[in-house]
Every structure is written in C-alpha cells, then in structure tokens.
Amino acid sequence: MTQHFPNLFAPLQVGNITLKNRVLMGSIHLGLEDIPGGVERMARFYADRARGGVGLIVTGGVGPNDEGAAIKGGGTMMNDEDVAHHRPITKAVHDEGGVICMQILHTGRYAYNPDNISASSIQAPINPFKPRALSGDEVEDQIDDFVNSAVHAQKAGYDGVEIMGSEGYFINQFIAQQTNQRDDEWGGAYENRMRLPVEIVRRTRAAVGPNFILIYRLSMLDLVEGGSTMDEIVTLGKAIERAGASIINTGIGWHEARVPTIATMVPRAAFTKLTAAFKNAVSVPVVTSNRINMPDVAERVLAEGDADIVSMARPFLADADFVVKAREGRTDEINTCIGCNQACLDLVFQQQVTSCLVNPRAAHETEIEIVPSQSPKSIAVVGAGPAGLAYATTAARRGHQVTLFEAGEKIGGQLNIAVQVPGKEEFHETIRYFRREIELSGVMLKLNTRATPEALSGFDEVIMATGVHPRIPDIEGIDHPKVLTYIDVLRDKAPVGKSVAVIGAGGIGFDVSEFLIHQGPSASLDPVQFAREWGIDLTVATPGGLTGQAQIPIPAREVYLLQRKATKLGAGLGKTTGWIHRAQLQRGRVNMIGGCHYVKIDDSGLHIEVCGTPRVLEVDNVVLCTGQDSNDDLALEMNQEPTLIGGADIASELDARRAIDQAVRLAAIV
Ligand code: FAD
Ligand code: NAP
Ligand code: SF4
Predict the structure, then answer these.
(1) pLDDT in tens, 132-167
(2) What DSSP assignment string belongs to 218-283?
(3) Which of 46, 76, 473, 543 lies 20 to 30 Å from 670, alpha-carbon distance?
(4) Is 385's C-beta closer than 6 angstroms to any atom of ligand 2?
(5) Whose CA is nearest to atom 8 of ligand 3?
(6) In the annotation, is 169 catalytic?
(7) CATH superfamily of 472-519+554-626
(8) DSSP H or E segment with residue 440
(9) pTM over 0.90
(10) Which residue CA neighbors atom 17 of ligand 1 most closely?
(11) Which ligand has the minimum distance to the alpha carbon of residue 340?
C-alpha cells in the first residue's frame, strides 16, 4: 500500500461502511439535474470520480419538496418517480466501488421561486423574492419532507444523505437570529432556533435505521450580522451528534456574506482552524472544507488534527483522478482547481451546466471523449498559451505527433502575466500541469522558436494559437513617455509613479488597478492576514464571526480606473467574483469613473471629459488596458489556411476558459 499521504489515505469506518480514504467530494450543483439526458451525464460524472478513488461522494443539492428546491421546478427527492430518476446514478457509482450520499438541500428564502418560504418573512439581499413565514404546523410538514426525502434517497440506493444546514439556507435561516424573528417554539432563544435541525436529524435517523450515513453540514462561520457564535455552534454540534448524525461536515459563510470564502484570492485551507476549534466537542468524524485543492494541503490539515475528513468539491471538476494520482505519488499530474469560479459557480448561478476552466470535460464527459485517434497525424501548434497547450496535449494524448512552437522562453502565454496579480497565484498550477502534460503526452516543445511559414510546411495540420496584441487606442499623445501598457507594468515591471490613470475597466483593468494599489505580501497566501484584512473573527466569539473592523492596507498609489461606458464599472466581471474585485478596489480607494471621453495625454496628465465637463487627471502614468486584437500576423503569411484557436481566433471576450474549451473540443475530434 502506498503511503504518500498517510493521513489522507487512512481508511475510516462509518457505521457498517468503510471509507477507503479521508476524501469527501463536496456537494456541487452541476446544472445537469433538470435537463434532458442529465441523469445519464450525472451518472457518468460521478462514476468517473468514484473510479478516480474518492472516498465519499456527496451529490449536488436536491430539494426535499417543491418549495425547497433551488429554483421553481428544480430537482427533488420526494416520491418513487424521483427514486427511479436517481437509480442510474447510485448504480454507476456502486459499480465503480464508490460510496455516495445525496445532499438534501432546502434553500428556504434563497429559492429562486416567488413561493419561497422561511422562518420569518425577511427577504434575502441576493433574492428578488420575499419569503412567506411558515406557521408552526407547516414547520412540522417541512421536517416530514426532510425525513421523506431521506427515506426515498435510501430507496434510490444512496448510502446516506447530507442534510444541508449551512451557507445561509433554510435550516440556517431558523438558527440565526437575524432571519428568525419567530416567537413560537421555533424562534426566540437559541435552544428554540436550533430545534429545527435537531428534529430533522433525530427523525431522519429514526426513519432510515442505524447504518445509513447521515451527514449534517454545520455552519462554522456565518459571516453575517446576527449569525452564530462558536459557543452556539458547539452546542448545536453536540445536539446534532446526539440526534444521530454519523458525520458532521462544516460550512463557511452564507451566500449573501460580503467576505470571500472560496474564490481564488482566499488562501488555501483558510478556515480549517475553525473546524479544529470545534472538532473535539464531538466524537463523530468531522469534515473541513474551503480552498483545499492539493493533496499536500489536505494531508497537512489532517496531520495537524484540524479534521478527520477533507472535503473538496471543485478540485473534482478540475481532475476526476485527483485521488488516484495523489495515492500513486503523481501529484505533479493533478490538474489543479484554481478557485476562479469562471466555469463552475459563475455558470451554475446563471442556470447553465457547470464545467471547469482547466478541464472543459467536467460534466461534459459524454460529449467530449478523449479516445485514441484512428488516423494519427503530424500537427504543428503555434503558441504555448492556454489554447495551444490544451490543444497540443489533448491531441498528443490521442496519439498524434505534435510539435509545439513557442516564441517566448517559457510556456503559459498570458497566464505568466496573470500570475503577477496579487490573488492570481494559482495560475502557476495550471502552467505546471501543462508542463507535465507536455512531458507525459510526448509533445515536442520548441521554446524560443518563433514559427515561420517555412517551419510549418509539411505538417498535416497547423493550429494557430498565437494569442493577441494589446489594443492601442487612438488618443492624442498616446506616444507620451508616461503611457504604458498592461504588459509593460505586469510583465516587464516598468517603473510606475504614485498616481496613475488606468484606461479600460475590463478584467485586465481591474487586475492592473489591484496590482498598482497593492503593497507587501499577498493576503491570499496567509490566512491570518486575510482574516485581518476582511474583518473575520477566527475565534467566532462575535455573532457571525465578523469583527466589524477590517484592517484594510494603505494603498500604494492613487489610482483612477476609467471606462467610456456609463454603466457600473466591472459589470462584466464574473457573477460570483465581480463583487470581490469591486470591493477590493473600493477598499483601495480607487477612483472609478465611467462615461469618460479621453481627450489627450500630455505632461500635465490625462485630459478627460465626463458628461461634457473637462477634467485633468494629474497623473504620473497612464496604463492602457483597452482590450486586445487577434494576433493573426503569421496566419496571414501562410499559403494554407490554418485553424485558429483562442485569442488568435477571436480576441473579443476572450478568456482562458474559452481558449481551453475551444482547444480541447477541437483536439478531441482532429
Ligand atoms: P496567449 O495566452 O496570448 O498565448 C499566445 C502564445 O503564442 C504566447 O505565448 C506567444 O508568445 C505565442 N506566440 C505568438 N506568436 C508566435 C509565433 N509566431 N511563434 C511561436 N509562438 C508565438 N483569463 C481568465 O480566464 N481568467 C483570468 O483570471 C484571467 N486573468 C488575466 C489577467 C491578466 C493580467 C491577463 C493579461 C490575462 C488574463 N486572462 C484571464 C486572459 C487569459 O490569460 C487569456 O485569455 C489567454 O491566455 C488566451 O490564451 P491564448 O492561448 O489564446 O493566447
Ligand atoms: P475587455 O474586458 O474587453 O476590456 C477592455 C476595456 O477597454 C473595456 O473597459 C473597454 O471599455 C475599454 N476599451 C476598449 N476599446 C477601447 C478603446 N479603443 N479606447 C478606450 N477604451 C477602450 O478586455 P481586457 O480587460 O483586456 O481583458 C481581456 C480578456 O481577459 C477579457 O475578455 C477577460 O475575460 C479576460 N480576463 C478575465 C479576468 C477574470 O478575472 N475573469 C481577468 C482579466 C482578464 P469602454 O469601451 O467602456 O471604454
Ligand atoms: Fe476550479 Fe475554476 Fe474549474 Fe471552478 S472553473 S472548478 S474554480 S478551476
């Protein structure tokens, strides 16, 4: 038996089930739940993760009744029809030797449903629909529905259920004072507010028997005003154990919290010390989670005694074989989740099928199959940015002879620029993954080699992944020495003065502004610094764990971030992360100005007009982040028409997600 990560690979007995390791695949909504053919796709998705060695899988949330489902008409587990619907999933996982629990998720006032319900009629700040407060009898009905759901999950072949009691959903809404203003037996004193989860667990255990796994997900840190304190959390955890839970999973932050909890700028394993503070209060196994994305991090968390099991969700979108690679000491082959949310949560919250920026096959396994080619070809790929890397390695894995030309001295393309931005360090892992994939797949890599039409003659296929050129806008004085591009600043580290105007407020304009205001070490590398800067009370002595005193660093520069559009700056940023980028810049006192007309740049600075009013920004430098144009220079020189991918194909709204997705899909069929 391999012992690369001894704590991670220690088996664990839960009831009459032996988990083969300490890895729990956390619940993540796939967006497949309610679409035609979705069950078959979910069966394949979960079976791949079971084959990849996950100890215990928890499905995405399933409603115990119609009003509890995430959206109107969303997936439920209530009756024999639902049982039949889910059976292919449990069978597929069991056929692979896996263990799978279904998460029962009652979303309460978070339901995107005008008929949503909660403890009290208090609208969530992230939902347009105000909930209806339940009567006492109706609360009893909801408990019955949880129990009924668990019983039907058991019939469907699940090994257990996870009752979702954190992240601000229905159960949490009863526990927290700010969302529960009832004066009956379900409200008021904490013992009344915690009655709902305890009753749900107690009655569920009675209905499903002693051996069915019953996980309860307990919020360790609400990050909202009026949330729980650690004393209350411990009291509830003990009661949940007495009521019959076999495992206590932990959750961090309500969805409406205005503190980042899982995005890429959150340090790895930032919250596991909270689980550690709770763990000794109970004797059932305790799970910890959030931004644990590599086996060494998981091993450290377990070795330090923070938890008994580690939960990872998005890392299994990024790599179905994470566990088997870790077990076999092939950590450098893991395709690491970078915490970007771009292809998972950002899509889920737009009611689309989830996927993964670094692994477009996630939840699309049946659609994008990587199988050996029947007619291997010689293929030249030009450019080792995300598009070229994904294409070259996928095609080579299929048996094609691939030569990858890169003009620069290293692979990664613009990702090498992105990693310079504080909070984007995880892109290093993507570059490392592709570097290893090049070795494993046999791609012939030619660095420091600018491809020419001559060098490309003789290949069966030529793939042009040459990326983009920064766009230089037509503004008077654009050649002034104080004008820099984002490449000058981020890649070439050009000196930048104390006051700066950033033209263009897309993703790169935001990143450059963040880079410019930042000084000192990045908070994304240190959980304590991160907690200090975001006002998190890691002892949770204060309700909800908010100190109310975020210690925001003094910005290194005075920055103006400008755009021509009159709309809110950053409106086009990621659905689940845009608010964080806007908050970071507001905290760094960046002046965000929309509706700008750029008049000229001269020794006195940048001359603009805002709503017809002239203004001079007396800045030392002007940094251009004004979008990009395709680099198709080489393609135009070619006699044969190459296949263009990534930025070389379409520069507008390009990101690494689209570049990799397009590349993998094309390489899968070449
Ligand atoms: P590129 O990454 O531009 O790669 C093109 C490669 O081709 C380069 O390495 C270049 O040297 C090479 N090349 C060009 N011509 C030749 C030639 N003739 N011969 C050989 N080689 C050649 N995207 C996200 O999804 N999420 C983010 O958070 C994110 N943050 C970003 C932050 C910054 C600061 C920047 C600059 C970009 C960010 N992006 C982000 C965008 C993302 O990096 C790009 O969309 C992506 O890199 C485009 O991939 P590509 O392969 O098409 O092109
Ligand atoms: P972008 O999002 O297209 O933004 C370009 C900005 O420049 C816009 O604000 C635009 O706004 C302005 N602009 C465009 N042409 C201009 C002109 N001629 N003169 C003056 N202003 C002009 O592009 P980007 O910021 O360069 O980013 C490139 C890609 O990288 C993006 O598509 C993005 O998805 C990706 N990226 C993603 C992230 C992420 O976190 N997901 C981070 C960085 C980059 P106005 O027209 O209103 O002025
Ligand atoms: Fe992780 Fe980003 Fe993939 Fe989501 S899209 S799983 S955050 S790498």
Answers:
(1) 999 999 999 999 999 999 999 999 999 999 999 999
(2) EEEE--STT---HHHHHHHHHHHHHHT-SEEEEEE--TT-SS-SSSTTSPTTTTHHHHHHHHTT-S
(3) 46
(4) no
(5) 337
(6) yes
(7) FAD/NAD(P)-binding domain (3.50.50.60)
(8) helix 427-441
(9) yes
(10) 450
(11) 3
